[in-house]
Amino acid sequence: MLRGIDTAASGMIALQRKQNALTNNLANVETPGFKQDSSPLRSFPEMLIERITNAENSGSPTKIGILSMGVYNQETIPLFSQGSLQSTNNPFDVAINDQALAPVLANGQAIQPSAFFAVQTADGSLQLTRNGQFSVNENGQLTTSSGDLVLGKDGNPIADQELSSGDVSIQSNGDIIVFPGDPARARTIGSLGIMVVNNPNELIKKDNGLFELNGADASMLAQTLPTGLQLHHKMVEQSNVDTQSTITEMMANIRLYEANQKVLQAYDKTLEQLNTIGRV
Amino acid sequence: MNTSLLIASSGVRAYQGKLDTIANNISNVETTGFKRRAAVFSENLTVSIQNQTDQQKEVGRLTPAGIRTTFGSRIAATALDLTQGVPKQTEQPFDFMVEGNGYFQVRRTTGTITEILYTRGGAFLQTPVGDGRFQLVNAQGDVLLDQNGNPIEMSKDQEFVVASDGTIAGTNQRIGMVDFSNPQLLKGDGGVYRLTGGDVNLITTDYQIRQGFLEASNVDLNQEMTEMIKAQRGYQANARALSYADQMMGVANGIMRS
């Protein structure tokens, strides 16, 4: 059988997956705290082919060369660059600005750490998110827009009956103060738990804009925020998707997909020719 | 099935929801006491595809094994923006504006059912109840209530003056103002709100009532128009993605030539 036919098919599958990731980036252009995915393609492990029999001498078979068996979509890497901040009127909006965090050296490479809000999902697990568009549920708990509970520095969900009044100020260090304008009633009800992830590439993407870090627990929530990390109240971090480049990439991607289809058709034609040989 | 088709359609649907919210805000730019809503996007479910189980064959890989695609976006919430609207002077004695927190309580009677609804829209009218006495009703005919939950009533020849705390001069009635433990649980119903959860508390502070003024809608047309342009372009981009997905399916169909 012709080897290239599977290679061309693998190309189409890989490009389809890449297109999925690009389409998803485009659908989340306005999702707060969304981090755009890039999807690098990787060649399948290469094979070394050699001649089966060697006519000239009795030595080892002659090496012909390497052959790649196709391509696949290796991984989807979220790009953890800072999104721009947009001011809103919502008293429960907080944005993280971690642009100025000092790079961390890992495996000889300088990696930019990333900071996240910690939330507790319905099944009790600790997950991370950049989407700081919070609200308050009927129990007075601070939640994300999908209902997960936002954790404080102590690892417990932030909850207070007076939180839902909306008269709230969130300091740049994460402290939440209710009734900030009234000295008689003003009090700090807690502090937002922030987790600084040194290598954000280790995060696993979950539902509803959450990320999971293996081995993460509440004790890793930063007690004092490192320098270069600020929280901004009444701001949301916009998605870091670039619409223009995404559309351009999608257009190029379709043409590549089409090129692979043409290769498949060429093989089809070859096989067709082969079939006509034996015709009587 | 082509996944990008589904992802793109979820994006289109989410943007449609945002456009609907903006359209509603814009159409209420002149509605007294209207509070705008802001659509909030969220990501959808994520699946992890196991594409290469042999970790050691992936030299230079940065992320944990598998590839993860999210299935588009959706509107997670339309949060009520409770910013104060600007005052609009009307010189009408039965127009009130609430400055600060607080909502008027009105009683609606439909057949035999009566319910208490809440509103920031302070444009009221007199309606006669006999004996030369009047009650205050809003445009829907809901009766304005006092601190005890009784209709506010006055006689025709009485001068109607309301103090900043809501007290009506010469009577023991005060316009009953309430606040909510969670105003986000209010559900709009044509100029009035219905509470869907949380507590209602009668309040006596944190607000001032201004007679002869109305609270204008807190919709800022500039902001809404900017948002609309963004939403429309986002819609367009996702519709484009939808047609790309269609093109790809067409290409896949074209593999087999007839």
What does it look like?
- The complex is a heterodimer of chains A (280) and B (258).
- Chain A is of the alpha+beta class and 280 residues long.
- Helix content of chain A is 21%, strand content 28%.
- Chain A has 2 helices and 23 strands.
- In chain A, strands 11, 12, 15, 19, 20 and 21 form a 6-stranded antiparallel sheet that branches.
- In chain A, a hairpin with a 5-residue loop joins strand 11 (114-120) and strand 12 (126-129).
- In chain A, helix 1 packs antiparallel against helix 2.
- The longest helix of chain A has 35 residues, at 243-277.
- The model of chain A has no long low-confidence stretch (mean pLDDT 87).
- With 258 residues, chain B is an alpha+beta fold.
- Chain B is 22% helix and 33% strand.
- Chain B has 2 helices and 18 strands.
- In chain B, the strands form 7 sheets. In chain B, strands 7, 8, 11, 13 and 16 form a 5-stranded antiparallel sheet that branches.
- The longest helix of chain B has 33 residues, at 221-253.
- The model of chain B has no long low-confidence stretch (mean pLDDT 87).
- At the A-B interface, helix 1, strand 13, strand 20 and helix 2 of A face helix 1, strand 1, strand 2, strand 3 and strand 4 of B.
